Amino acid sequence: MRPLTDTETERLFEKLANYIGRNITHLIDRPDDPHCFRIQKDRVYYVRESIAKLATSVARDSLLSLGTCLGKFTKTGKFKLHITALNHIAEHAKYKVWVKPNGEMPFLYGNNVVKAHVGRISEDTPEHQGVIVYSMNDTPLGFGVTARSTAEVRRLDPTGITTFRQADVGEYLRDEDTLF
Amino acid sequence: MGTSRGASKPAGSNSKTLSKRPGGAKKPGAAGNKNKKQDLSTPAPKQKRKFLKKTHTTAGVAQIGKKKDPKKKREADLARLEKELPKLNMITPAGVVQPKGKKKGKVFVEDKDKMMSILLRVNDSKDGQIQSKLERSRKLEEIREARRKEEEARNEQRKSKMESAKDAIRNKRKRKSDEDGDKVKSAAKAYIQKKSGAKKVAFA
C-alpha cells in the first residue's frame, strides 16, 4: 500500500471529474473525517486516514483490501472506475439519468440505456459525458457515458441508445470474483 | 667434462662479481671497471648523470620525462579520446538517462496542496472540454433549427402554390359551367315564353 504518484493522481481525478466535476474537492477536503487515496497492487482505495495508518502494519502481500475500492489502473496506465465507487460518486453526481421501471432490469443485466427506458435526464448534458444512472425512486443503479446530448436524445427514436453502460450494481453478482 | 665446466663457471662468475664490488658505486662501477685503463691514460670526460626534472605542484612532486607505465598511458589516452571525440548520434530512451541529483523511484503526492493543484488543473481542462462540447452542440442545434425552418417554409410555399393551382383549375371549371348554365337557362326561358304564348292550362 502506498500513496499515489503525480500521474496516477491526475488520471484518477480526470476519471472522477467525468462524473462529479468539481465536487472531487468534497472527497479530498473532509476536515471532520479526513480520507486519503491509497494504491495497493493496481487498485485504488479511498480510505479513512486512521485506517490507512493502521494498514501500514500489514505486509503488502498480506493486505487484500482496505477502505472503498474506487477502481484499478490498467496495464496501459488508464484508470477504470469500479461499481464499488458508486456510493461516493452518486452523492456528488453532476449529470444524471433516471431509468423507468421497465428499463431497470435490462440495465442491471449489463445493457445500455435506450431512449424508451429513459424517464428523465439532466438538462444540458453534453454527449460522451459521464452520468449516474438512477431508478425513478432515486436509487443509484450504476454509471455510464451519454451517447447523445440532451437535445438530441429528445429527437431520438425509442430504440436508440442514450447511455453507454460503464458499470452497474448487477456486477456485484456477475463479477463477484474479480471485483474486489 | 661436464662437471669441470660446471665447476669453473661459478668460479669465474664469482670473480667477476667480486671485481665489481670493490668499485664502490653500483651503476658507475659497472662501467668504470672496463674503463679503468682509459682512466689512467686520459682523463675521461665526466659522465652525464641522467637528471630527471622535478616540478613542484600543488598536487605534489611530479617527475617530467619519467617513462610512464604503458598500461596507464593507454588508459589516459583512452580517457582523453573519450573526451575529445564527439558522441555517436544514438537514440537514448527517455527512461534510461536519469538526471543527476534527482530522487530515485516514485514521487508520491502526500500533501493536500499538491493534490489541490492537480485537481485545479484537471478541473480546468474538463470544464473547457464540457464548455466546448456544449457550445458545439448548441451551434449544431441552431443549424438544425434553421434548416428545419427553411424546409418548413419551402413546404408551405409548395403547398400554397399547389393550392393556388387547384383554385385556378376550380375557377376555370366553375366559369365554364356557369357559362354553360346561362346558355341552358336562357334557352329554357325562351322555350317557356314561346310555349306560354301558345297555350295556357289552368286547373280549377
From TrEMBL, chain A:
GO terms for cellular component: nucleolus. InterPro entries: NIP7_N, Nip7_N_euk, PUA, PUA-like_sf, PUA_sf, Ribosomal_synth_fac_NIP7, UPF0113_PUA. GO terms for biological process: assembly of large subunit precursor of preribosome. The keyword Nucleus applies. Residues 95-170 form the PUA domain. Required for proper 27S pre-rRNA processing and 60S ribosome subunit assembly. Interacts with pre-ribosome complex. This is 60S ribosome subunit biogenesis protein NIP7. It comes from Morchella conica CCBAS932.
Automatic annotation (TrEMBL), chain B:
Signal peptide: none annotated. Residues 125-185 have a biased composition (Basic and acidic residues). GO terms for biological process: intracellular mRNA localization; mRNA transport; ribosomal large subunit biogenesis. Residues 1-75, 125-204 are annotated as: Disordered. Residues 1-17 have a biased composition (Polar residues). Residues 46-56 have a biased composition (Basic residues). Keywords: Coiled coil, mRNA transport, Nucleus, Ribosome biogenesis, Transport. One of its GO terms (molecular function) is mRNA binding. GO terms for cellular component: nucleolus; preribosome, large subunit precursor. It comes from the Eukaryota. The keyword Coiled coil applies. It is found in: Nucleus, Nucleolus. Belongs to the LOC1 family. Component of the 66S pre-ribosomal particle. PANTHER family: 60S RIBOSOMAL SUBUNIT ASSEMBLY/EXPORT PROTEIN LOC1, 60S RIBOSOMAL SUBUNIT ASSEMBLY_EXPORT PROTEIN LOC1. Required for efficient assembly and nuclear export of the 60S ribosomal subunit. This is 60S ribosomal subunit assembly/export protein LOC1. It comes from Morchella conica CCBAS932.
